[in-house]
Amino acid sequence: MCSINPAIKFISLLAVTFFLAYRFDPVLNFAVFLISVAAMLLSGVRLKKLCLYMIPVLIVAVGMFFTGYRFSADHSMPVTTADFLISDSRWWNGLAQAGRVLAYAGLGYLFALTTDRIFLIRSFKDQFHLPQIFVYGLLAAWGIVPHMMQEYKRTKAAFRARGLSVVPVSPALLKPLLVKSVRWSEELAIAMESKGFSGHEKRTDYAPVHIQIKDILFLIVCAAFLFAVALLR
């Protein structure tokens, strides 16, 4: 999953997301969630990291289950599927709501945790023809983020050295960070202009991103999965 073209991956997973929006099927939702988790683990995502990310998702899923269970339209109508029979539609409604949360979270994490951010921007530029001015801006923003995190830790350590206690989102911490971020962005813009970076001139790429056979196969597999689900269920 990590080597698949991010633009093709984005289109494929977005198609699956829209398809799930029109399907009220908890079995399909849980199947998509399990497939997403398996794909992430096979792509090298650490299990501990994935479990930490899933904690808030599971909390929301449990809340959606009880919401769907409590506010079901019909409490006595049995729900029959090709796989099993549920004697109470409240369970079906709750499982459908919870499964949809898990499926969307699984697809989102699958894209986020298996996609390199630089590779993503480059693929969007080559496949979606993203304007160069946005490409330079996004790449510059990604370069500033590590400095922002380091400055945040320094400011927090300075308050601790003076015996002051501040909350993580305190304005006393965020104001210096905001001022320095604006200063860094201005210096970076001036530096890029002085080096000839412009969003209006055509440039060649040192390593252009191309669509490969594995990317087409991934798109075909996702399309075949959606077609099979629509045909069988």
UniProtKB/TrEMBL annotation:
<keyword id="KW-1003">Cell membrane</keyword>
<keyword id="KW-0472">Membrane</keyword>
<feature type="transmembrane region" description="Helical">
    <location>
        <begin position="91"/>
        <end position="112"/>
    </location>
</feature>
<protein>
    <submittedName>
        <fullName>Energy-coupling factor transporter transmembrane protein EcfT</fullName>
    </submittedName>
</protein>
<dbReference type="InterPro" id="IPR051611">
    <property type="entry name" value="ECF_transporter_component"/>
</dbReference>
<keyword id="KW-1133">Transmembrane helix</keyword>
<keyword id="KW-0812">Transmembrane</keyword>
<dbReference type="GO" id="GO:0005886">
    <property type="term" value="C:plasma membrane"/>
</dbReference>
<feature type="transmembrane region" description="Helical">
    <location>
        <begin position="52"/>
        <end position="71"/>
    </location>
</feature>
<feature type="transmembrane region" description="Helical">
    <location>
        <begin position="30"/>
        <end position="47"/>
    </location>
</feature>
<dbReference type="InterPro" id="IPR003339">
    <property type="entry name" value="ABC/ECF_trnsptr_transmembrane"/>
</dbReference>
<feature type="transmembrane region" description="Helical">
    <location>
        <begin position="7"/>
        <end position="24"/>
    </location>
</feature>
<feature type="transmembrane region" description="Helical">
    <location>
        <begin position="216"/>
        <end position="232"/>
    </location>
</feature>
<dbReference type="Pfam" id="PF02361">
    <property type="entry name" value="CbiQ"/>
</dbReference>
<feature type="transmembrane region" description="Helical">
    <location>
        <begin position="133"/>
        <end position="149"/>
    </location>
</feature>
